[in-house]
Amino acid sequence: MYRRRSHALMSGFGTGLVLMMIACAAAAAAEAPALPEGLAEAPAAADSPALPEGLGGDVSGGPALPEGLGEVPAAPAAAAEDASPGKLRPAWLHGFWDVRGGVRTQNDPAQSKDATLGELRLQLEADKAWDGLVLKYRGDFIGDGVLEEGDFDLRELSLTFSPASVLDVKVGRQVLTWGTGDLLFVNDLFPKDWQAFLSGRDVEYLKAPSDAIRTTWFTDWVNVDFVYTPQFDPDRFITGERLSFYNSLYGRTVGADREVNFNAPSTWFEDDEYALRLYRMVGSAELAFYAYSGYWKSPGGQRFPPMQATFPKLSVYGASLRGNFLKGIGNVELAYYDSRQDRGGDNPFVNNSEFRLLLGYERELAKELTGGVQYYLEHMMDYGAYRNSLIPLIMDARDQDRHLFTVRLTKLLMRQDLTLSLFAFFSPSDVDTYLRPLVSYKVNDHWTVECGGNVFFGEKPSTFFGQFEDNTNVYGAVRYSF
After folding, report:
1. In whole angstroms, what is the distance from residue 43 CA to residue 39 CA?
2. What is the pLDDT of residues 136-150, one digit of tens each?
3. DSSP secondary structure, 278-314, as one string
């Protein structure tokens, strides 16, 4: 990501935008006539989130884009329409304008600003196909009012080709995902953007891009996906710059005053990553096996001196099964996380090895109403060695098992133009909760308005969701797609 400074946006932008969004959504819903519900099947939940490396699903693709504008009849009334932004672009260029803002619902002592989000985003997307070659580009130009800077995020710049009828190759920047979870990730070790996810950006931005080479080999017996990343791509994790978090070394929640100082492996072709997936259909179910070699995607270690967060070496081995089950779709996924720099579990400054398990089920509950539930487990290996290695009175002990349940409800109304959804995370072991309510209304083929929230509760500030309680926020957005 390349950054350049821009003029600061006017103060109060986030608060005013949220109020405007809520008013727009209410007005749009009030003016629309009562229509019969659509007959199409509700879309499947996004694959992939997640939150803690375990909150995920398949959100790798961008939002569905409306078809380009066709020819306009030659009439005086069409003159104004011809001057619209959609008419001034080439037919092969697509994208959207997105204006979005979010504010905290309470004071956060660790942050100097109430706004969590305040940005104007222009995404441009284009592709070009030749005989056997496809070139794709997708990039975002961003004016960020919270950090008071300009930004450019290259989401994709890739070349796809097929050197053989059974082999596909994709080279360059791309968004990658696999696995069976809905906002919970077990075997998906591709980078995530937790700052975007928790602050109110569209869920597509949970998946960060990778600079990689992906090859897919198709056979009658098994299909093989292999991804090579020549330079380690870490998560865009919480650093304190925008959202506060609990720092165990200080024993309190910290923010912009104590941003994370980290040292990520960054040498090309030396600090690299490998990911492998073998998959095939078994009846009506998909069976897959996974392997990964690289590093913990978010900081999993600590170095002294100087005080730096580190990314210890990691290998992951797992499997998944997804298919029809009890009039719905069920999935099971598991993985063993081999923390190669602390296999004995006696280094308190490096993550222990873990076993992770995910069970999920989703189905249509009623017409235009879908629901899904998941259970997720993180089990720490060598827990006795870990407890014995802690520094008394300074370091708090983690639980050996972290249990997490999720529930997703999605209701489509007004011929599927209005979407009401709620995604809830609850951890009985941590005794904390995270709620993601969202209301989205598609005004027409170009305009969409939405409002939502990120709501956190926790008994302790040291648990995963509890640490974000002061970051609870509401947000609103207006998007024009072309």
Report:
1. 12
2. 999 999 999 999 999
3. EEEEETTEEEEEEEEEEE-SS--EEETTTTEEE--EE
Residue whose C-alpha is closest to residue 174's, from 159, 158, 190:
158
**Averaged pLDDT of the chain:** 85
- Kindly report, residue by residue over 124-139, the tens digit of the pLDDT: 999 999 988 999 999 9
From CA 68, how far away is CA 386, in angstroms rounded?
Answer: 58
User: What's the rounded mean pLDDT across residues 383-407?
Assistant: 90
Q: Distance (Å, rounded) from C-alpha 289 to C-alpha 24?
A: 47
Residue 58 gets which letter from DSSP?
-
Residue 27: other Cβ atoms inside 10 A: 12
CATH 3.40.50.12780 fits 2-68+75-481, yes or no: no
Contact 214, 226 (CB under 8 A): yes
Q: How many Cα neighbours within 13 Å face the side chain of 134?
A: 10
Three-state secondary structure call for residue 454 = strand
In whole angstroms, give the CA distance from residue 404 to residue 184: 10
The pLDDT of residue 317 is above 50: yes
Q: Model-level pTM?
A: 0.81
